[in-house]
Amino acid sequence: MSKRRQHRVADQVQRELSDIVQRRVKDPRLEGVTITGARVSPDFSYADIHFYRLGGDQDELQEALEGLESAGGFIRRELASRLRIRHTPELRFHLDESIDYGDHIEALISQIHEEDQRRQDGTPSGESDL
Questions:
Q1: Of 77, 85, 88, 118, which sits with the fewest C-beta atoms within 10 Å of its C-beta?
Q2: pLDDT digit string (tens) for 53-66?
Q3: Distance CA 46, CA 92 (A)
């Protein structure tokens, strides 16, 4: 199978899953869940689905994962009715940790900029701006 088709199917799976999770699934554990990516295997037998829930702590993220897995059969049936492929891939849900990682990197960069600004202003980095 072509990589191009694989990517097109993954993009379509992501779009359709986003719509299904937001509009069709009525599980309160999935409120605020965003589908951030989809990767389909070369033989289209499975799809790795990445998701995130804004403002969620670890317990809420785990609940969201459980909600997605619980609704997996329904979601897959809905997806099958929307896709124009012979076999609907098995869905495997994963927490997207790139958003937390990006926030961490952004915080580090902000800290570096603040330290540089203090050095330019003449304030030693160990002192507070009280």
A1: 77
A2: 887 788 888 999 99
A3: 7
Assess if residue 118 is contained within a domain: no
Measured between alpha carbons, how far is 82 from 76 in angstroms, rounded to an integer? 10
Mean pLDDT value across the chain: 88
Q: Is the pLDDT of residue 129 over 60?
A: no
* CATH, residue 71: 3.30.300.20
| Dist. CA 63–CA 17, nearest whole Å | 18
* Vertex 76 angle, CA 75 and 77, to 5°: 90
Mean pLDDT, residues 50-79: 91
Domain of residue 15: give its range: 3-96
